[in-house]
Write a structure and sequence with these properties.
Layout: E1 34-39, H1 45-53, E2 58-63, H2 66-82, E3 91-95, H3 98-105, E4 111-117, H4 135-144, E5 145-155, H5 158-170, E6 174-176, H6 179-184, H7 190-193, H8 196-203, E7 209-215
Parallel strand pairs: 1-2, 1-4, 2-3, 4-5
Antiparallel strand pairs: 5-7, 6-7
Bound molecules: S-adenosylmethionine.
Length: 220
């Protein structure tokens, strides 16, 4: 339950210096803010791929399951230890319930990318309120994303894919990326190839359903 992990009362109370020691200056202040958040990061495959693609960007995975979070922590520490080029210092993970505590971690306009990759489907109608993409939660995501920030979603469950796309389409603060923008974004292909869930779907020859939207600057 929630009582098993600390909940910061505001983003100012989150000490990311412990997560990113190589980005800490002499006065113990962190030099950068986290910009990417992988929500429900699972085993951390996406973070690990993004770490070397964006070596100067701080990224955090958010994961509810304790053991999975511990696994990702260890995985990142091992990569840091064995990297000869000082890589993987820019990724880390926190255990939290992202459906409740996103605004406790990030300030308004802090994030430039948010990932919701292969989230749990919650098939039954009465459980739709547990889905990580909903009109209500998109209000929170629009708040923590900066103008021009991108939200990436993908699933192998067609009905959930339709649902996430419909929520994003009807939200006033998001617009779909064009085909050209999708092709030129190097992150898009990682949604499947870098995530453990995506790899599993690919092995089984399954289909995926993607929705990638931009947080707009204002509502006209
Ligand atoms: N994104 C990863 C991937 O594509 O390989 C993992 C996908 S897995 C099917 C969904 C993950 O979301 C699980 O690891 C689960 O524990 C996590 N999760 C579910 N609800 C969550 C919540 N409210 N907050 C944080 N993580 C959550």
């Amino acid at each position: 339950s929630d009582s098993h992990f600390p909940i910061p009362i505001s983003p100012a109370h989150v000490d990311f210096s412990l997560h990113f020691p190589k980005f800490v200056e002499a006065d113990n202040k962190i030099t950068k803010k986290v910009e990417f958040a992988d929500i429900g990061c699972g085993f951390g495959g996406l973070l690990i791929s993004l770490a070397t693609l964006f070596p100067d960007t701080l990224m955090i995975g958010m994961e509810l399951r304790d053991k999975v979070t511990e696994y990702v922590k260890e995985r990142i520490l091992a990569l840091r230890r064995t990297s000869s080029e000082g890589q993987y210092e820019n990724i880390s993970v926190v255990r939290t319930n992202s459906m409740k505590y996103i605004p406790n971690y990030f300030e308004k306009g802090q994030l430039s990318k948010m990932f919701f990759l292969f989230p749990d489907p919650h098939f039954k109608e009465k459980n739709h309120r547990r889905r990580v993409i909903s009109t209500h939660l998109l209000d929170e995501y629009a708040y923590v994303l900066k103008a021009g920030g991108i939200i990436y979603t993908i699933t192998d469950v067609e009905e959930l894919g339709e649902w996430m796309k419909a929520c994003l389409e009807k939200h006033p603060m998001f617009e779909s990326l064009t085909q050209e923008e999708l092709y030129s974004d190097p992150v898009v292909e990682l949604l499947c190839s870098a995530t453990e869930e995506g790899q599993k779907v690919a092995r089984n020859g399954g289909q995926t359903f993607r929705a990638v939207f931009r947080r707009i600057a204002y509502v006209s």
